[in-house]
Amino acid sequence: MGSYQEVSMNRRLKKVMAAVILMGAMAMVQGCGGNREEAKAGSGGRVLTVATEAAYPPFRYVGRDKHLVGFEIDLAKEIGQRMGAEIEIRDMPFDRLLDAVAGKQVDMAIGAITVTEQREKQVAFSDSYYRLSGYSLIVKKGNPPVRNEEELAGRVVAAKRGSTSEAEAKEHRPRKIVSMDHYADIFRAVEAGEVDVGITGDQAAIYELSHGGSSHLTLSGTIPTEDNFAIALSKDNPRLKEEVNEALKSIMDDGTYDSLTNKWFFAKAVDKE
Predict the structure, then answer these.
(1) Which tens digits make up the pLDDT trace of 33-50?
(2) Which fold has domain 43-131+229-271?
(3) What is the three-class DSSP state of 58?
(4) How far, in Å, CA of 273 to CA of 254, rounded?
């Protein structure tokens, strides 16, 4: 056996070596920090964090069991499954979605996000997964109709804060724009007579009027558009964009996309969840 000094030195060396190995392992994990999902994968499986605002049925909303449901929720989960990843949904206000992606607080965002030149300066976008056919104009039954964009002039208009429908309404000389944090607030404001007309996406209006929405509201007109919804991703992760696009393509090619649209846009989805 060695001397006491030798044994003590060996013990100290072992502690130093263990500390060096631990620091090296931590550095390797931190070095992967550019891709949030890669860092998480080391702890037992790939996880993708997805930001959304759960207040736009039938695209996404809180179901009867208090879980998030909707077309985009199912689509995100299907994308994750085809990428071999678990999807972690984070609910946040719509006007924070792109900042969360750009700041790498989440891996992606899905939430009826229209691709615009301004938004493309901040984030990258996947291929489109939905094309909006038009903005719907909702009025209270018995009130003067608002049939098109020209008839927004001089009206008090309720619109979703930060949305492209809000931007569209501003272009047509309304008397006032009342910006709402939630689409449900738009319908309530119209019914209460606080505004003359509400502007929303096509499916949101159809869903509200067909699934237990107010019987006092009616679809008065539309504004044609060809807005494309896409998934927002960090510009610093082109590989993730490629994977998402590959998953989207397979979903559309094998009929899964058609099944999801039928479930959420053409069937009584509110009765399914």
Answers:
(1) 344 554 444 445 899 999
(2) D-Maltodextrin-Binding Protein; domain 2 (3.40.190)
(3) coil
(4) 24
